[in-house]
């Protein structure tokens, strides 16, 4: 009986401790404006976690680079000066090379396919490696399928792309992929792209439609080609030390909120794309759907790059193998 009493006492103390746990407010920064899907990710997560935790976990969102650009947010969450971010997966590929798997060109056919991959065991195995770098990846979301925007006429073949000064995010795989296509890939911070297009420092940018809208690139760009070469995933990240300081119930609420919001967020981006395309049509900006021949040219250019990166890490190879089994969703 005495043993039972001791155990009961400990259990009561733990319950009391849980009940007395202080609510927490987390600062979440991201680098884009509020129309962008990355902001939608932050809002969906905030609403879900505050509901699931009954207000025990609150999230304050700081959009539009208020807490830093892509690189600064990546470092901020890693080292604990920022609690959370939704940030481009490519910003973390130098820390963890297997992350390149999410953007192997030409593999994932559509948003439904991306949603499947985002919640796959292959994706989770990659995300779990970020714990070695001081971060917990709660989920991987999407900022939009990437296309090709020019300040001149839209491209309709690989020949049209040759030598174009094209902004790419600072990432080795992107440099390899676009060098293989034949453009002049130019790494540049996201916040510098508008002025570079405006001044002629850039001829083109590979970009998602929602960024064309949110960053107002349509004010400068004169043509869009729907190459759909890869997606623009974003990790929902929390500093590991901050996460570890939370109660188990708070942690569980955060994981559940992420799990609930991934697929709805990804599929909502497809609807946003339709809105942007309608706006571009209103603005009379030409939008080109690539011919089958052009698609074949791009696939042939990207193929050696995919093979190169599959060989880098077994997790990349496993992710690619799963992605290759996907078939386009019925329209």
Would you mind describing this structure in some detail?
The longest helix is centred in the C-terminal third of the chain and has 35 residues, at 248-282. The protein is α/β, with parallel strands linked by helices and 331 residues long. It is 47% helix and 17% strand. The chain has helices at residues 2-19, 37-52, 70-79, 111-118, 121-128, 158-161, 172-181, 193-199, 209-214, 240-244, 248-282, 292-310, 314-323; strands at residues 24-29, 57-62, 84-88, 135-142, 146-150, 165-168, 184-187, 204-208, 223-225, 233-239, 287-288. Mean pLDDT is 93; it is low at 1-19. The chain has a six-stranded mixed beta sheet. The protein has two domains: 22-143 and 233-274, D-Maltodextrin-Binding Protein, domain 2, CATH 3.40.190; 146-231 and 275-323, D-Maltodextrin-Binding Protein, domain 2, CATH 3.40.190.170. The termini are far apart. Strand 6, helix 7 and strand 7 form a beta-alpha-beta unit. The radius of gyration is 22 Å and the shape is globular.
Outline of the structure:
With 331 residues, the chain is an alpha/beta fold. The protein has helices at residues 2-19, 37-52, 70-79, 111-118, 121-128, 158-161, 172-181, 193-199, 209-214, 240-244, 248-282, 292-310, 314-323; strands at residues 24-29, 57-62, 84-88, 135-142, 146-150, 165-168, 184-187, 204-208, 223-225, 233-239, 287-288.
């Amino acid at each position: 009986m005495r043993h039972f009493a001791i155990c009961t006492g400990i259990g009561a103390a733990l319950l009391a401790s849980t009940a007395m746990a202080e609510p927490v407010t987390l600062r979440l920064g991201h680098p884009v404006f509020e129309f962008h899907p990355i902001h939608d990710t932050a809002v969906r997560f905030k609403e879900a976690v505050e509901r699931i935790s009954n207000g025990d976990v609150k999230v304050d969102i700081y959009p539009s680079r208020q807490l830093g650009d892509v690189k600064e947010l990546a470092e901020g969450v890693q080292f604990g000066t920022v609690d959370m971010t939704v940030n481009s997966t490519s910003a973390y590929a130098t820390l963890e090379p297997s992350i390149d798997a999410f953007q192997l060109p030409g593999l994932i056919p559509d948003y439904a396919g991306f949603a499947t991959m985002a919640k796959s065991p292959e994706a989770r195995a990659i995300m779990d490696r970020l714990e070695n770098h001081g971060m917990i990846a709660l989920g991987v979301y999407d900022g939009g399928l990437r296309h090709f925007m020019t300040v001149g006429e839209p491209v309709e073949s690989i020949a049209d792309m040759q030598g174009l000064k094209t902004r790419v995010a600072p990432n080795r795989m992107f440099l390899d992929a676009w060098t293989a296509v034949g453009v002049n890939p130019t790494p540049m911070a996201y916040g510098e792209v508008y002025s570079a297009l405006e001044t002629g420092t850039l001829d083109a940018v590979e970009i998602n439609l929602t960024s064309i809208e949110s960053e107002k690139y349509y004010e400068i760009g004169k043509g869009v080609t729907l190459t759909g070469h890869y997606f623009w995933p974003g990790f929902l990240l929390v500093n590991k030390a901050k996460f570890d300081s939370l109660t188990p119930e708070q942690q569980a609420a955060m994981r559940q909120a992420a799990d609930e919001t991934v697929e709805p967020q990804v599929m909502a981006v497809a609807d946003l794309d339709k809105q942007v395309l309608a706006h571009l049509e209103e603005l009379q900006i030409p939008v080109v759907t690539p011919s089958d021949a052009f698609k074949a040219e791009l696939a042939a250019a990207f193929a050696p790059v995919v093979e190169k990166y599959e060989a880098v890490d077994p997790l990349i190879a496993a992710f690619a193998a799963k992605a290759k089994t996907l078939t386009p969703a019925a329209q």
